[in-house]
Write a structure and sequence with these properties.
alpha+beta; Butyryl-CoA Dehydrogenase, subunit A, domain 2; Butyryl-CoA Dehydrogenase, subunit A, domain 3; four-stranded mixed β-sheet; four-stranded antiparallel β-sheet; 10 strands; globular; binds tetradecanoyl-COA; acyl-CoA dehydrogenase activity; membrane
Length: about 575
């Protein structure tokens, strides 16, 4: 078993450790896989061009049956299902690339396909027995059967462990009877199979309930409410689900009884990466639209593209998209290399993906200006479709808390062990030595990135500096606040934003290094410039975050919000 900190690149950063062997060289698909993925992409593009009218899907709140059937015949419902079960058996990177393409063409379709395979049947791929796979995967691969992921409940959104749906063991454990309801379930209106989570222990004060994952067939008695009316992704189906005495056989438990929370989290780790790849695709579509608009629109006797403020937007959009694409495919490569823990990397990709897309769609709409606001053009629909990404598969707020707290868990444990070791020096010596070694390494000078191309030396030095800052800041807050850090969301936000920027910069550095090695300085000019610009933007944020640890107005903000809750509204009027 490798040491804990080496199991995740981003978690290691919290110790000031740059595990560069994990991210160099930048992962790439094999040429065989690139070729087969290109063939899929070609047929997907042709199919969408001939058959998909996204404006109509948005207007009708429905994906036509003929389109769904076409997607089925292209094999798009079974992209990652192994070929032995009738799927295409794509790697994570190739799957991400296909979802990127689909996301860039139609968000409702991407969400429908994503809910089916990124999360709907993912539990089977990750935890299913051979028998479960044999029974369900072939129909799921062809799309004859559609899957959904049912976790969220009225009183359990971000706090996923608080679900109330109850599963009672009956017939001496041969089956379970499920009662409860789920909300906002994508594909809820027509899915045939649900990965559904229910409590298999009573709710007890102070202890977390045991949750179990079940594969529930609609025919077992699941019913649904009407489709919700949504801001965007209107062609996708989102409904409530109801379970009234739904009997599920024991063999439909996925993973172990009582270990369903872990199943849900692992599925979401994979789903969040799929979402990020969809965001890459939409950003690329928006860049095409924005650049086309810039070239055609004239003002004050010139193309608007000549103006500095337009160039500023286009440059930022490109740099942010480059960073997002780099980290998404770096993470996909890590998953394909069978890394044990990519929970933080995928959460970062989800947060950065949805926020990059939100900023890119906002900038594109601004460039398009008047027509950007009109329903006859695609901009406003893409804006509406994009908003949900900041919310579903874990709100960006809860994911920031997750990123910060799970990053600080190991340093926090190490610190606690040091304190204990100081009290019991002989017994604690073994513990201390590991931590002391790391500290000694840090004291000798900060960790270096040795595999970055020398042309990116400036960027690498700034990266190293802020890795060391992250470790210092994390240790400072842990020393100062101990377990109370769990309640300090302002501080968690700073920590999360730092590690997200660092991961993005690391991804740009390894990808750009590979580009320079392959094509030389001139050949990789665009990548070098985008890496440089992204680093500059990230550097400003990192500097600001570090300074905010020492001086901030957190307490002022809390006081203002606290009074607003009492007032119930904005308290002033000029009258
Ligand atoms: S589906 C609904 C999405 N819902 C969520 O994402 C829920 C968010 N909440 C959470 O993730 C958890 O409740 C949090 C933990 C993180 C808040 N990997 O004590 P704990 C372990 C592995 O911290 P809590 C939807 O929206 C942890 O280490 N393990 O738990 C789809 C610990 O283990 P141990 C993890 O305080 C819509 C244990 O769990 C992870 O209760 C359709 C307990 O941890 C993890 N990540 O809360 C989308 N997290 O006990 C379709 C925790 O061993 C999209 N743990 O120490 C398709 C997109 C297509 C593209 C679109 C393009 C436009």
């Amino acid at each position: 078993m490798p040491p804990l900190i080496e199991q995740s690149f981003t978690k290691a950063l919290f110790h000031g450790v740059i595990a560069e062997d994990m991210i160099f060289p930048y992962p790439e698909m094999t040429s065989e896989e690139r070729q087969s993925t290109s063939i899929i992409l070609d047929s997907v593009r042709r199919f969408f061009a001939a058959n998909v009218d996204s404006a109509k899907i948005d207007r009708d709140h429905e994906i036509p049956k003929a389109v769904l059937d076409g997607l089925r015949s292209l094999g798009l419902f079974g992209l990652q299902i192994p070929t032995e079960y009738g799927g295409i058996g794509l790697s994570t990177a190739a799957y991400a690339r296909v979802m990127q393409e689909i996301g860039g063409m139609d968000a409702s379709i991407a969400v429908t396909l994503g809910a089916h395979q990124s999360i709907g049947y993912k539990s089977l791929l990750l935890f299913g027995t051979h028998e479960q796979k044999r029974r369900y995967l072939p129909q799921l691969a062809t799309g004859e059967s559609v899957a959904a992921f049912a976790l969220t409940e009225p009183s359990a959104g971000s706090d996923a462990a608080a679900i109330k749906t109850r599963a009672e063991a009956v017939d001496g454990g041969a089956a379970y009877v499920l009662n409860g309801s789920k909300i906002w379930i994508t594909n809820g209106g027509f899915a045939d199979v649900f990965t559904l989570f229910a409590r298999t222990s009573a709710l007890e004060e102070g202890s977390k309930p045991k949750i179990t994952a079940f594969l529930v067939e609609r025919g077992m008695g699941v019913t649904n409410g009407p489709n919700e009316h949504k801001l965007g992704i209107r062609g996708s189906s989102t409904t409530e689900l109801f379970l009234e005495n739904v009997r599920v056989p024991r063999e439909n438990v996925v993973g172990d009884v009582g270990k369903g929370f872990k199943v849900a989290m692992e599925v979401l780790n994979s789903g969040r990466l799929g979402l990020a790849s969809g965001c890459v695709g939409v950003c690329k579509t928006l860049l095409r639209l924005a650049i086309a608009r810039v070239e055609e629109r004239r003002a004050f006797g010139r193309n608007i593209g000549d103006f500095g403020l337009i160039k500023d937007k286009i440059a930022r959009m490109l740099a942010e998209t480059y960073a997002l694409e780099s980290m998404t495919y770096l993470t996909a490569g890590l998953v394909d290399s069978k890394i044990a823990d990519y929970s933080m990397e995928s959460a970062i990709c989800k947060v950065k993906g949805s926020e990059t897309l939100w900023s890119v769609v906002n900038d594109t709409l601004q460039i398009a200006a008047g027509i950007g606001y009109m329903q006859d053009y695609p901009y406003e629909r893409i804006l509406r479709d994009s908003r949900v990404n900041l919310i579903f598969e874990g709100t960006n707020d809860i994911l920031r808390c997750f990123i910060a707290l799970s990053g600080m868990a190991a340093p926090g444990k190490a610190l606690a062990e040091v304190v204990k070791a100081m009290r019991e020096p002989i017994k604690g010596f073994g513990l201390l030595s590991d931590f002391a070694l790391r500290k000694a390494r840090a004291a000798l000078g900060r960790e270096r990135m040795t595999r970055v191309h020398p042309l990116l030396g400036r960027e690498a030095v700034i990266f190293e500096e802020y890795v060391s800052e992250l470790a210092v800041q994390a240790e400072n807050v842990l020393r100062k606040h101990g377990r109370d850090i769990a309640e300090m969301q302002f501080t968690q936000l700073r920590i999360a934003d730092m590690v997200m920027d660092l991961f993005a910069v690391a991804a740009c550095l390894t990808r750009t290094t590979r580009a320079i090695e392959r094509r030389g300085e001139d050949g990789a000019r665009r990548e070098i410039d985008l890496c440089s610009l992204y680093l500059n933007m990230a550097h400003k944020r990192l500097r600001q975050n570090v300074s905010d640890f020492a001086r901030n107005d957190d307490e002022l903000r809390k006081a203002i919000a606290g009074r607003a809750y009492i007032d119930g509204a904005y308290p002033f009027d000029v009258l």
